[in-house]
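Team,

Forwarding the record for the chain on the shared tracking sheet. I've put the sequence and predicted structure together so nobody has to dig through attachments.
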Amino acid sequence: MSAPIPQKDLVILTADKNAQFALRGLLTRYPSLGIKELRPDFFVHPEKDPGVLRKSHDFLRSFSQSHRHALIIMDREGCGAEQRSREEMEQQIETAMSSSGWQDRSAAVVIDPELDIWVWSDSPHVDAELGWTNRNPPLSRWLEEKGFKQENEVKPARPKEALEAALRVVRLPRSSAIYESLARKVSLSRCTDAAFAKLRQTLRGWFPLA
């Protein structure tokens, strides 16, 4: 008897809700991504980044017959294997997925160091979403003054700590909604992160515009 034909396009496993909401927002930008419109199923691994690294194949095994593709998103920071490169981690996940029924239908994206690196760009939407519109000094200069980044750099070296500090100043709670809103608004051409580039290339390969 032949295996059933998958009826759903995509299942996405993330390590936390921040990443889930960021992907939700990003996938509303399907024309900019150069892909067809998708309605993926989202799941968060209960063991966060370490669980995603070691157990994605177990978590997603049962979806291999119902979904055409699987996308796994995690942070390198906090996964418990930071001595390894993001590429090595991606290969580990993809090899395990291939052996658990997915063959070449899955991809892992390990963000280095963490999701918050995607927040930072020179877009005015960043200042607005983080509550820094019309503040003095502007957010970029404040980050330099506080030592989070060097002059003329766009992204702070410790993106999560920089985000938390900036939000504390304006007394704005860090929430998944911020990630989703930024993903819906910031120009995708501004993001040059290698993990983001892999994500976009993978989606274009799987779900090209007709």
